[in-house]
Fold this protein.
Amino acid sequence: MGEGLSELGRFSDPALFILASLADGEKHGYAMMEDIEALCGVRLGPGTLYGALARLERRGLVEPLPSEDRRRPYRLNAAGASALEERLRSLEGFARAGLGRLRTA
Amino acid sequence: MSGFAAWLVRLYPREWRERYDEEFVALLEDRSVSFADVFDVALGALDARLSPQIQDRRPFAMVARLRGSVLAVLWAWVGFVVAGTGFQKMTEYDDFVEAARENVVVGAAFDAVVVGAVVALLAVSAGGLPVVYAALRGALAEGRKDVPLLFAAVPLALVVFVGYTLLLTRVIYPSVGPLAVHAALNVAFFVSLVAVFLLAAIASTAAVSAAVSRVEVDGRLFRFALWPATVATLAMAVVLSATVAWGVALSVQSPALFAGDDGILGVSTVLNWLVIVAVMAACTCAAAVSVVRGLSAPSVTSSCVDGTRR
């Protein structure tokens, strides 16, 4: 499933940010943007956010919830959580290996 | 901001807006939109138009898209026929008939117009009649009367047009006596005939469009209809080219005739020809865009398979 995120091309990073943002609870678009900016310092544009969100929804990794005052919250489902965990573990391994090389250099 | 947000969302394709419009506008209204955001939204809209991943692949949406493409070609063809009728009316004047006899290119161009028009008519019939039959059958199976009544508008419009033409030619003109081409009464009669013709064409096409849209028709019939629609579009392109060639050849062969005032109701020949060519070109382009849009729609069958996989 981690490979699935890589297949999203230029949307793979925004998709990862969205999954990470939804990991601690459901959020609507604006809340996701604010959370992502606070979490990793990246300010996603509205077009990028919804380009990634639409792809995640199509792949069944996030689920839309009933709209609240025109703002529709999304939540991470089991497949999305699994994809997020796999991707983060992959990045964790990559970070550990890179840092290890730096220490030995 | 609300109006601007709504305008920005219009950059996205209809299928995308049907799904995300409300929440996306709300998002744009929740923050101060910067120039970078506008650029980002424009890129997102372009992506939504190019990428099949975020298009609505639901079977009914595909059928609607195919139906829309087929009906758009029908409207374009009707517009083309109206322009072609204007060309036929203009060239029935003796001097144009003589020019077609004397000049091979003018004559061949006129023949190509006729052949192209017949091919387009046959293609539209081949693609349209199965759809009309399926819509009628579906409507009758559901016990609906509105759809057959809408289809009945086509022969009714034809009867009205033919009836008005007969009224003018058999009753009104003989009763008022000979009229000069530029006589106000003659112009008024002719304009009224053109108006009835246009109204009949628009009413017929609108009725068929409404009838086909009101009842469920198998998407495969619309997909099939796209191939005759392609043939019709190519035939329209041939007729358009032949009409252009006719004017160019006439301007070389008979410059005085081409530069004269021998158009419909004695208007400038060049102006009359240019208007006809412009309308034909616009209709051909509209038909070509609709055909490409329809042919690029994902297969209805594969959409069903894709839908079950998700």
